[in-house]
Automatic annotation (TrEMBL):
The organism's place on the tree of life at top rank: Bacteria
CDD domains per UniProt: Sigma70_r4
SUPFAM superfamilies with a match to the protein in the record: Sigma2 domain of RNA polymerase sigma factors, Sigma3 and sigma4 domains of RNA polymerase sigma factors
Pfam families on file: Sigma70_r2 (PF04542), Sigma70_r4 (PF04545)
InterPro entries: RNA_pol_sigma-70-like (IPR039425), RNA_pol_sigma-70_dom (IPR014284), RNA_pol_sigma70_ECF_CS (IPR000838), RNA_pol_sigma70_r2 (IPR007627), RNA_pol_sigma70_r4 (IPR007630), RNA_pol_sigma_r2 (IPR013325), RNA_pol_sigma_r3/r4-like (IPR013324), WH-like_DNA-bd_sf (IPR036388)
Source species of the chain: Aureimonas populi
Family per similarity comment: Belongs to the sigma-70 factor family. ECF subfamily.
NCBIfam families linked to this entry: sigma70-ECF
Residues covered by the RNA polymerase sigma-70 region domain: 47-107, 145-193
Name listed for the protein in its UniProt record: RNA polymerase sigma factor
Keywords: DNA-binding, Sigma factor, Transcription, Transcription regulation
Length: 198
């Protein structure tokens, strides 16, 4: 499948469904050896997968190395993706999580042993609403709506959803109570949804 031959998503599909279908189509193209499709998959998913790697691994360089390995795996094994068994993001996130955990285990001799609880915080379910919107065709509108938020809220949402920080990590980073961070992000997402639906 060439880069220009992907089927359009149905007009009645939600932005999240359309983004999921687009990603599934690009993965099918990767399975047929389409390098442009692999670049598309990277552009659509690398921020989320890098966030997963960063949660599990001790430093950024290791996470970057694992992310490269993830996309090499996708290139070699894209034909194994089955949309009837998992959404594309869930399939990709599983690869990233497994590669990151394998790398962390291999580093055990070089770094002090640490708990793997961080891996349990990485969701197995499909991409969230914000990630779905980001991957949809209205990414420009999402950016415009993010700009309407105050700087503190916008920064917290960006760190949580694009950099992959957990609420606990955000609370520590910003020296704020955990409940305040959760409320800040929840209110910001409500405002974002209202802006996007307007």
């Amino acid at each position: 499948m060439s880069a220009g031959s992907e089927d359009p998503a149905p007009a009645t599909a939600s932005p999240q469904d359309a983004a999921r279908e687009r990603l599934a189509l690009r993965l099918r193209a990767v399975a047929q050896g389409d390098r442009v499709a692999l670049r598309d998959v990277y552009d659509l998913t690398s921020a989320k997968l890098f966030g997963i790697c960063l949660r599990i691994l001790p430093d950024r360089q290791e996470a970057e190395d694992v992310l490269q390995d993830v996309y090499l795996t996708v290139w070699r094994k894209a034909e194994a993706f089955d949309p009837a068994r998992a959404s594309p993001v869930t399939w990709l996130a599983t690869i990233a999580r497994n590669r990151a955990i394998d790398r962390r285990r291999s580093l055990a001799g070089r770094h002090p042993p640490a708990a793997f609880e961080a891996a349990l915080d990485v969701p197995d379910d499909d991409e969230g609403a914000l990630a779905g919107l980001e991957r949809a065709e209205d990414a420009h509108r999402l950016r415009a709506c993010l700009e309407e938020l105050d700087g503190r809220t916008r920064g917290a949402i960006a760190r949580a959803f694009f950099a992959g920080l957990t609420y606990q990590e955000l609370a520590r980073e910003r020296a704020m109570p955990l409940g305040t961070v959760k409320s800040l992000i929840r209110r910001g997402l409500i405002r974002l949804r209202g802006c996007l639906e307007a």
